[in-house]
């Protein structure tokens, strides 16, 4: 979107085609702007993953974008039916907001890059600076994700964040802070559920 590369996403749309087998669930999901193939691997021992979704039903998909032979698809790690239509309306409003926000940020990038001092050049234009260490658990955790450790494309492991805080906060406190930062759109998961990266980088 707006020239930015997308890896992880949440998608909400209507199932227009379904092909379900013992090991996979394949759907074509249309969100009103286009359709995309969604594939979900099913673990035979995971009861929560066995429920197939019917054609015509709205679903929310959490997954990774994959491109194979020029065809873009989504590999879903979670897929659930939408039971409240208000979620559909909310999703459309969120899409409009994100599109406007990213468009404004992209337009401001040249001026912001020219005006930014060298020591803050890593921050995204228009984004708030990372909180300084020594504050709340959430502030300190966010600082680590925006520091040198956060430069790794695979993100930072939560265990490494706990270690970097030298016992100032428990593992549970750090995980709660990470979850809050993810919900607020400041962090996103990368290679697995334990690695996260800042949206400012």
Helices and strands in order:
Elements: E1 8-20, E2 24-30, E3 35-41, E4 58-68, E5 71-81, H1 86-115, H2 137-145, E6 156-157, H3 158-164, H4 171-183, E7 187-189, E8 195-198
Parallel strand pairs: 3-5
Antiparallel strand pairs: 1-2, 1-4, 2-3, 4-5, 6-8, 7-8
Share of helix, binned? 25-40%
Anisotropy-based shape? globular
Alpha-carbon distance between the two ends: 17 Å
Helices, by number, come to 4
Q: Could you report the average pLDDT, rounded to the nearest whole number?
A: 78
Under the CATH scheme, the architecture of the largest domain is: Beta Barrel
**SSE string, helix = H, strand = E?**
EEEEEHHEHHEE
Count of spatially separate domains: 2
- Taking all Cα atoms into account, the compactness measure Rg is 19 Å
**Can you tell me the CATH class of the largest domain?**
Mainly Beta
Number of DSSP strand runs: 8
What's a concise summary of this model?
By secondary structure, the chain is of the alpha+beta class.
Task: Describe the fold and architecture.
- The chain has 201 residues and is an alpha+beta fold.
- It folds into 2 domains: 8-86, Nucleic acid-binding proteins (OB fold (Dihydrolipoamide Acetyltransferase, E2P), Beta Barrel), CATH 2.40.50.140; 122-198, Winged helix-like DNA-binding domain superfamily/Winged helix DNA-binding domain (Arc Repressor Mutant, subunit A).
- It is 29% helix and 29% strand.
- It has helices spanning 86-115, 137-145, 158-164, 171-183; strands at 8-20, 24-30, 35-41, 58-68, 71-81, 156-157, 187-189, 195-198.
- The two termini are 17 Å apart.
- The relative contact order is 0.11.
- Residues 116-133 have low confidence and may be disordered.
């Amino acid at each position: 979107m707006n020239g930015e590369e997308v890896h992880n996403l949440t998608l909400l749309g209507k199932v227009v085609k379904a092909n379900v087998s013992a090991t996979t669930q394949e759907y074509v999901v249309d969100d009103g702007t286009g359709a995309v193939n969604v594939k979900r691997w099913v673990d035979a021992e995971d009861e929560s993953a066995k429920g197939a979704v019917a054609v015509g039903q709205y679903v929310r998909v959490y997954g990774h974008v994959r491109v194979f032979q020029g065809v873009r698809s989504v590999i879903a790690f979670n897929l659930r039916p939408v039971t409240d239509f208000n979620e559909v309306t909310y999703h459309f409003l969120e899409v409009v907001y994100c599109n406007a926000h990213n468009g404004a940020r992209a337009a401001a990038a040249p001026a912001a890059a020219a005006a930014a001092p060298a020591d803050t050049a890593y921050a995204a234009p228009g984004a708030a600076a990372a909180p300084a260490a020594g504050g709340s658990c959430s502030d300190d955790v966010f600082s680590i994700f925006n520091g040198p450790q956060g430069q790794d494309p695979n993100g930072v492991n939560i265990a490494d964040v706990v270690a970097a805080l030298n016992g100032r906060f428990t593992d549970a406190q750090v995980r709660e802070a990470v979850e809050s930062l993810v919900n607020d759109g400041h962090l996103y998961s990368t290679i697995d559920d334990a690695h996260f990266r800042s949206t400012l980088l």
